[in-house]
TrEMBL record:
InterPro entries to which the protein is assigned, alphabetical: Flavdoxin-like (IPR001094), Flavodoxin/NO_synth (IPR008254), Flavoprotein-like_sf (IPR029039), NOS (IPR050607), NOS_dom_1 (IPR044943), NOS_dom_2 (IPR044940), NOS_dom_3 (IPR044944), NOS_N (IPR004030)
GO biological process, one term: nitric oxide biosynthetic process
Complex and partners: Homodimer. Interacts with NOSIP and NOSTRIN. Interacts with HSP90AB1. Forms a complex with ASL, ASS1 and SLC7A1; the complex regulates cell-autonomous L-arginine synthesis and citrulline recycling while channeling extracellular L-arginine to nitric oxide synthesis pathway.
Name listed for the protein in its UniProt record: Nitric oxide synthase 3
Entry cofactors: FMN; heme b; FAD; (6R)-L-erythro-5,6,7,8-tetrahydrobiopterin
Record family assignment: Belongs to the NOS family.
Catalytic activity: 2 L-arginine + 3 NADPH + 4 O2 + H(+) = 2 L-citrulline + 2 nitric oxide + 3 NADP(+) + 4 H2O
Region spans: Disordered: 22-43
Keywords annotated in UniProt: Calmodulin-binding, FAD, Flavoprotein, FMN, Heme, Iron, Metal-binding, NADP, Oxidoreductase
Annotated EC: 1.14.13.39
Pfam families given in the database record: Flavodoxin_1, NO_synthase
Amino acid sequence: MGNLPAVLPGAARSCGLCSRQLSPAPEDGSGPDKGSPVPPRHAEPARFARLKNWETGSIAYDTLCAQAEQELPCSSRRCLGSLVLPKQLPVPGAEGGRSGAELLALARDFIDQYYASIRRESSAAHVQRLREVEAAVRTTGTYQLQEAELIFGAKQAWRNAARCVGRIQWNKLQVFDARDCASVGEMFGFLCSHIQYATNKGNIRSAITIFPQRAPGRGDFRIWNTQLIRYAGYRQPDGSVLGDPANVDITELCVHYGWSPGSGRFDVLPLLLQGPDEAPELFPLPSELVLEVPLTHPTLEWFGELGLRWYALPAVSNMLLEIGGLEFPAAPFNGWYMSSEIGTRNLCDSHRYNLLQEVALRMGLDTRKTSSLWKDKAAVEMNIAVLHSYQEAKVTIVDHHAATESFVKHMENELRTRGGCPADWVWIVPPISGSLTPVFHQEMVNYQLCPTFRYQPDAWKVYVSKGTTVTRRKTFKEVANAVKISAKLMGHMMARRVKATILYATETGRARTYAWSLCQLFRRAFDPKVLRMDEYDIVSLEHETLVLVVTSTFGNGDPPECGESFSKALMEMSSPYTNAAHAEPPKSYKLRFNSVSQSDQLVAAWKRKRRQLSNTDSAGTLGALRFSVFGLGSRAYPHFCAFPVLVEVLEKDSSGTELRAGRCVGVQLSGTPTEAAWGRGC
């Protein structure tokens, strides 16, 4: 580790993609003959990783990866690089501390790094410092960092953060030492000072405040908020969220501990701070401390009417800082925003503020067809609005092109100065215009060095309130009995509800996705079940109370493969004319099916028949059935949604009662509003 450049040995082997394996095969594809036995692979320490830039064709070698000690979740057989939080990444809780030998090894490595960085390795001071650390670990089980070591370690942790794209500024990090903090009141004072310094009236400065380290036999200082500044998310009775859905949990915790919530989409949350072995306390942030930027657009005058805004300072507060084996559970740090973090992720993600369609409609874009690229156009305008607003307010921000270009320069500097740069490609490539940025074409290798920032369990998930007694561990039999009783009670409750069957037929999976969404909606008042059409026994249709059909079509209105047997069986159950004198000669299944559309004679004949029926006529085969049909098709074909129309007609013809007129929408239409409206109307 450290700042010393690594030298590439001539006989070195390469890092595998996800594990330390043998060097990859040559690019020309040459290798052992197919008939020859494959030599056994033996895991060997990695020496370097060969990295190619596919845009420029340049080749680089990362030798720093050989110093990575912590195992990542990937292996020689599977890659977990796209997982946000693999099980192996979060640091264990306080109860899973390191042994003295492990701590001592990490401490020695870090002290060596520090003295190498100041070019004093093997000096008398270096040797003396190692002795001091070893003595402290042996006598107390821990040790204390000197201030210079703390500053060096914090900067190195940012430098080693593989998921951060803005590391070119790592050496300019301002470190605030708050290790002498003794209470949550003092903690709040340190945090206010941090916010004030870092905000700097909009000229954002990178900073970190480091609170006391984890100590044996003592609880941790923790900040329960994921960031120092966040907007509240209020769960509504209908299941929706007012505000930021990402913060619903912490919002409810703040309310639980005494916060009086507001009623807006952008209410700043108070801080929940916890001292060692104490209950968390609530600290509202002074309004003058939080700099916010109202969002406007340089050309779209109506954009300001949306009432959007965002805060200036992104300060992460829920990660653990690890330096030399010492763990600092409370070490909030900040850089500044990249525009796509706000414009694309925070405001446009469907699980966040989800404003994409609202903006697109105000822009007059055709949101019915994905081929209009309305999402892309709206997302670009959102990013333009964010950049424009922050620049007008003189608040530091960087666009994704400038940020990624700076990362490429940083990576080149790191390869030159210390032989490598840990980088997680999945996180480095921005969420918009990925292939237009230079990092998209650059191969990277992901590994973890120390010092580092690590994920840790949410504070409220490991918190045990004061006075709570530790209950004994339940036996498997007790847990099984509790589950059995709960399941029985749930079964009794569901049995009293009206049963609903949701049938779907799909080729691409969209109808299946909507069927399950519909199931979640109906679960509030019904006992629904979801079945694929070819899994459903058509005989059961006579005994159903409520059936909802969600089906797609392809080609000339044809049914999906899994819907053909259902349609054929339904057709055999129903006859379009009850009067034998008017009976039509039998048609083949395909011929009869492909003749169906909204204006076909079959539909018209059914309407004439229904008008002639009276209330005294006997019910048909499906007299007790209530149903509705939702069809997905393409308007490019003459028999648009023919299969859903056929299902609707045949069920009506068998005396089924339609709850709501069937809906047929083009597959290119934006499904959410139409589908949701149909589901709520059933």
